[in-house]
Each structure stands twice: as C-alpha cells, then as structure tokens.
Amino acid sequence: MRALCWEGVGKLAVRDVPEPAIRAAGDIIVKVKASSVCGSDLHLINGYLPAMREGDILGHEFMGEVVETGPDVRRIKVGDRVVVGSVVACGGCWYCRTEQYSLCDNSNPQPVFTEKLWGHSPAGILGYSHAAGGYSGSHAEYIRVPFGDVGAFTVPDGVPDDSVVFASDAMPTGWMAADFCGLKGGEVVAVWGAGGVGQMAARSAQILGAERVIVIDRLPERLATAAGRLGVETINYAETDVLEALRELTAGRGPDACIEAVGMESHDVGPIYAYDKAKQTARLQSDRPTSIRQAIMACRKGGTVSIVGVYGGLVDKFPLGAAMNKALVLRMGQMHAQRYIPMLLDRIAVGEIDPGYLATHPMPLEQGAKGYEIFEKKEDGCLRTVLHPQAA
Amino acid sequence: MTSNGARWALAGAATVTAVGVGRAVARRRRRHQPEREDGWYVVHRGITVDRPVDAVIGFWTDRERLDRGLAEWATLEQVDDNRWRCVASDPVGGGTEWRAEITVDGPRRLSWRVTAGPVAQRGRVELLPAPQDRGTEIRAELRWRSGPVRRMLGLAGGHEPDLALRSALRRIKSLLETGQVLDTRHDPSGRDPKQEQATDRIREQLMVGGRP
Ligand SMILES: NC(=O)c1ccc[n+]([C@@H]2O[C@H](COP(=O)([O-])OP(=O)(O)OC[C@H]3O[C@@H](n4cnc5c(N)ncnc54)[C@H](O)[C@@H]3O)[C@@H](O)[C@H]2O)c1
Ligand SMILES: [Zn+2]
Ligand SMILES: [Zn+2]
User: Fold this and answer.
1) Taking every annotated instance into account, which residue ranges of this chain make up the domain Alcohol dehydrogenase-like N-terminal (chain A) (predicted)?
2) Whether A249 and A318 share a structural domain
3) Can you name the residues that pair with B84 across neighbouring β-strands?
4) Are the Cβ atoms of A55 and B190 closer than 8 angstroms?
5) What are the pLDDT digits (tens) for B99-117?
6) What is the Å distance from ligand 2's center to A39 Cα?
C-alpha cells in the first residue's frame, strides 16, 4: 500500500509499504478515507518531539471503514464507518476506568523513553514517534488500530468524511481545553492559536457558557475565519500589544480563563523570541513557551490557564512567580479522545458544531508532502490539509 | 486451597518464565549495580493492577488467556499440597531450560527458587489490596547471583534480572487489565529490512526495563 513516511527532519515522501495485519485480539484494521494533518505533526516532522525513525508513517487524525476485526472485538463490525481517537487506550486500566484515556497504563508498548523523560509513561498515540509507542500512522491506505472497541466510534450518516474526521483529534482537544476551564457561564475566555485546535476550543468554550471568546494569532485569514464562523473577537499579536488589549477588553480584570493552543513552536515578535528560537535551535531548551508566558501574565487573578498545545521537555523563563502569586489554576494534557468523541459526534449530528470548515485543503495522499508544506507555511488560508488515501 | 494454590502457582511460573525470557533480551544493559546482600543481588519492584486481589488470583485459571500470554513456556507439576515444580524454557535464549520450585506460602504469598538454570535466582510475590479502590499491588522481591564463569561471559550480572522483572510485571499487568500485551514491532513502515532491524533494536531498548 501507499503511505506518507517521515524521512528525516523536514523530509516527507510517499512510499510503498507492507499492509498492516491484525496482531492482537482487540485490533481492527481501518481502510482510511480521510486523514488530517495536525499541528503536532509539525513538531514531529521538525524533530522537536523526539524518537522519530526514518520510515515512520505519520498521521493520527482520521476516519474510514472497518475492513477486519480481531477475535475479541465485539462493538465494532466490519463495514462500520468509524472515526478513531488519536490516543490509544486499553479500556481496562484505572486511568481508562476514570476516563483519563490519554494516561492509559497499557497502550504504550515502548514506555521506557517517556518514563525516563517524564517519570511515567502516558498513553501511546498512533503515528506519533517511538516515544509514543511506535505505532504506524493513518496517512496510509490502511491502519491497524489496537483496542478497536475502545478507540473507534461509528459516525452518524450524512456527516461528510472531511468534517467528522476532526472528531478524532482537533475537536476533543478543543473540548478538553474548554472543559479544563471549569466554566459556569458568563466568563471571558482568551484562546492563543487560531489553528484547528484553537478554533475548536473557542467553539467549545462558547457552548460551555463563555460569554465572550477572544482568539489571538498573527494570521489574518485564520483570525477572519474564526470571527466569521464562530463570532469571536480577535487580536493580532503581530500588530497589537496582547496583554494591554486583553486588559482593556476586560476593563482591567483579565480573562477568566486562558487557553493555550499553540504549542512548543510558538512564534513571537521581538528580542525574547530571537533568544528562545536560538536556544531551541541549539537544543538548549526543547520548547519555545512564548504563548504560555503571555497566557499566564494575561490571566485574571485566580483564573485558569488551560494548556493543550504540546510541549515535550524543558522551557526557559517560565513565569512561575506570576502563576503562584496570582493563585492560578494550571490544567494541561493530551486529550482524552474516547471520553469526548461520542458526545461530540452527537453535537456534529445536530449541527451544534460544524468542524468541516477546517478542511481547507483536501488532497490525494500522493500529494502529502506538498500538503504539509502548505499547512506548515499556512499558505493560501490553510487551516488543515486532509489527505485521501483512496483517491487516485 | 489446592485449586487456589494451583492457580497461584501458575502466576509464579509466569513470573519465573518471564524473568528467564527477559534475561536474553535485557542482556548487555548495565548501569549502576543493584544492592547486594550476602552475595545476592536484591531488588524490590511493585506494580498496581486495577483488579481486586481475588480477580488477580482468579485470572490464572483462564487457561486460554494464560496460553496466549505467558504460561506457554512453562509446565507445572504438583509435588505436594503447596509445592510445585516448574520447567520453563526460554525461546529467545536458544531454548535454555529453567527449573524452579514454587511454594504457595499463603493465600496471597508465593515464593520460588530456581533449582537449575543459567542464573541462581529466588523470588517472592505478594498481593496486597491497593488503597482508594485502586485494585491490587503486586509486590515482588527478586534475588539472584551468578557464578564466576557466567559473570566473565557477561551473561548474568548487574541489572538484567531486575529489568526482566520490571518487564514481566508490566506484561502481567497488561494481561490482567486488557487480556493482551501490545507490540508494534510488525507495524508497517517505509524502512528497508536493515533499517527495520536497527529500529527493532531501539524498540527493544524502549520496551525493556523502565519503571513498572
Ligand atoms: N493536547 C492534545 O491532545 C493535542 C491534540 C492536537 C494538537 N495539539 C497541539 O495543539 C497545538 C495547535 O495545533 P493546531 O493543529 O491547531 O496547529 P496549527 O499549527 O494549525 O496552529 C497553531 C497556531 O498558533 C499560532 N501561533 C504561533 N505562535 C503564537 C503565539 N505566540 N500566540 C498566538 N498564536 C500563535 C500560529 O500562527 C497558528 O495559527 C499544537 O501544539 C499541537 O501539537 C494538542
Ligand atoms: Zn494531533
Ligand atoms: Zn488503559
């Protein structure tokens, strides 16, 4: 079959690879219909998240049709049209029982790396390097999904592939970001990053009761899309002093909750950014934390900073003093896909959330490398490239 | 007691074999040496399984699951009420045979002693209810020592049985909680056979040891 493989830092190519097979009793094989790019892939492709190997197949946000099931699979049937959560979860450990699926104890068969790096190993993630289990990803004609009964969900008829695909990752991540904020109704929520994740976080915050949502980015097309689609306010950080603007927009209080949906390759203007970039390039710090610093400084006293942008290692100049003295609540994590997907599918079915507009660049798998280039450079108003492995 | 003892003895067999098998995989990984006591290396390792103690013991009666998991490498023979003889072979280590005697010391305690095998080894496993509805703590103590010849060949010293024990506990937990042990070794990739071999060596390093 054909698959999009990582060939070294910044290099991707479509290759002929063997087809996957059922290896464990709970496995299913999915024929991939739509497979999206994600901001996390950029961290992997650029070598900021570790333990990629040449030849690894990328992709973790996808949907398709079930073509084979292992002997223990009960809920999912051959022929089902399913969306699959990016995070692998066993369904049988304490973390899964308490719906903290991205912390699953049993889904990373190669846990030693993260145990050494972070003290414990979180769940495995499909197509996400050998630190996250070494699973093959979904930018391929077929993919093996372990614990199919736990990770795959049949999707409502009538919802297009290129819309429901985002129930795999961008939507549950955005939802969890808003869920972390503990909204009761009437809050002001600021969201850093107007990518797929940030936009879904903004929509989720609205549904969960935020009165005003303010989205921050530097890309005018993305900000315009967010304003047009979701009715949020926007701040362009390249033109405006974000802290000043947020303070004014809230009459001095600061947002009640700040969601960070940017991640470790956060960009900024000015000398501190040059310093961070230089340190990261020289691998003296693994992550660039500009947007987190800002979120902590902006947040109202006693407010919540919710981090879903991905970080891998150490950061520099983390304003712990501000967080401590303002008594902030910090919440963060990889998303618990399986906890939110069924509820999100219901909301898509009734039209409460319509993520389809994120799929700005549908293309055949063969053009995968180009698709990533457009996504990385945010060319042509690209929010997400969605690859179609079955298309000619 | 006898039937519970039998099940429980199987758990011991599983641990013995897993430790034996892990030995070959873990070979050549050495860092600081573990504690020594009277010439024995001693380690304590524990893991928490999200199942009540009875379920952990009961698990070992499910012959099919066991066969799929660990016990396919071992045979068990009852010596008397509480003692079992276990013969296990190590497929990775070229079929090396391990013989061990397993004693059921109580409803939740088990010990074993390797009577013939490449590394002198004894161990104990104890099951304790975990606090806060967290299931069962499996606590293991492993002691081993290796003869001068084997030490010279670098076959059995340092951390190996410890790494193997940690992997064994992790496998047992996964079997108990999910009925499977995952492996991504044969997932498709764009690698040629040589690159795949190199990647498998890295996989091995990332699979063995760590914290249970
Ligand atoms: N926690 C999870 O489970 C999870 C799941 C999916 C994605 N993610 C992470 O979420 C983050 C966003 O993903 P995405 O797919 O939307 O990525 P994306 O690349 O499409 O979007 C990131 C956006 O952040 C903007 N940005 C950069 N620096 C900024 C700054 N200083 N302030 C404000 N905005 C800034 C960029 O212009 C871009 O629009 C990534 O880090 C990704 O790894 C996390
Ligand atoms: Zn993602
Ligand atoms: Zn789990």
Assistant:
1) 25-149
2) yes
3) B78, B102
4) yes
5) 888 888 888 888 888 888 7
6) 6
| Cα A374 to ligand 1 centroid, rounded to whole Å | 15
| pLDDT surpasses 80 at B136 | yes
| CATH code of the domain in which A233 resides | 3.40.50.720
- Domain around A10: 2-169+335-388
A352: pLDDT strictly greater than 80: yes
Q: What whole-number percentage of chain A has pLDDT above 70?
A: 100
pLDDT (tens digit per residue) in A172-220: 999 999 999 999 999 999 999 999 999 999 999 999 999 999 999 999 9
Minimal-distance CA residue of chain A relative to B203: A110
Q: Compare all CA atoms of chain A with the CA of B69 and give the residue at the minimum distance.
A: A24
Q: Which CATH number fits domain B33-207: 3.40.50.720, 2.30.30.280, 3.40.190.10, 3.30.530.20?
A: 3.30.530.20
Check whether residue A89 and residue A226 sit in a common domain.
no
Query: Does one domain contain both A12 and A126?
Result: yes
The pLDDT value recorded for residue B144 is: 82
**Do A188 and A161 share a structural domain?**
no
CA distances from residue A84 to A9, A28, A103, A144, A315 in whole angstroms, order as listed: 27, 11, 17, 11, 32
Q: What mean pLDDT do residues A70-79 have?
A: 97
Checking DSSP bridges between strand B136-145 and strand B120-129, what pairing results, if any? antiparallel
Give the residue extent of every domain in chain B. Answer: 33-207
- B186 touches A: beta carbon within 8 Å: yes
Could you tell me if A246 and A298 are in contact, meaning their C-beta atoms sit under 8 angstroms apart? yes
pTM of the predicted model, to two decimals?
A: 0.92
Q: What is the pLDDT of residue A8?
A: 94
Q: Are A297 and A243 in contact (CB under 8 A)?
A: yes
Q: Report the domain count for chain A.
A: 2
- Same domain for A125 and A197, yes or no, is no
CATH number of the domain where residue A377 is located = 3.90.180.10
Distances (CA, A) of A246 to A181, A216, A250, A306, B29: 17, 10, 6, 17, 54
Confidence of residue B164 (pLDDT cuts 50, 70, 90): confident
Q: Is A364 on the interface with B (CB under 8 A)?
A: no
How much is the mean pLDDT over chain A?
A: 95
Contacting A residues, span 103-132, partner chain B, CB-CB under 8 Å: 105-107, 109-113, 115-116, 119-121, 124, 130-131
Give the residue from B170, B206, B208, B211 with the most A CB atoms within 10 Å of its CB, the best one to mutate: B206
C-alpha A140 to ligand 1 mean position (Å): 24
Q: What is the pLDDT of residues A265-301, one digit of tens each?
A: 888 777 778 778 877 777 777 777 889 999 999 999 9
SS (H, E, C) A345-374: HHHHHCCCCCHHHHCCEEEEHHHHHHHHHH
User: Nearest by CB to A93, which of B50, B179, B190?
Assistant: B50
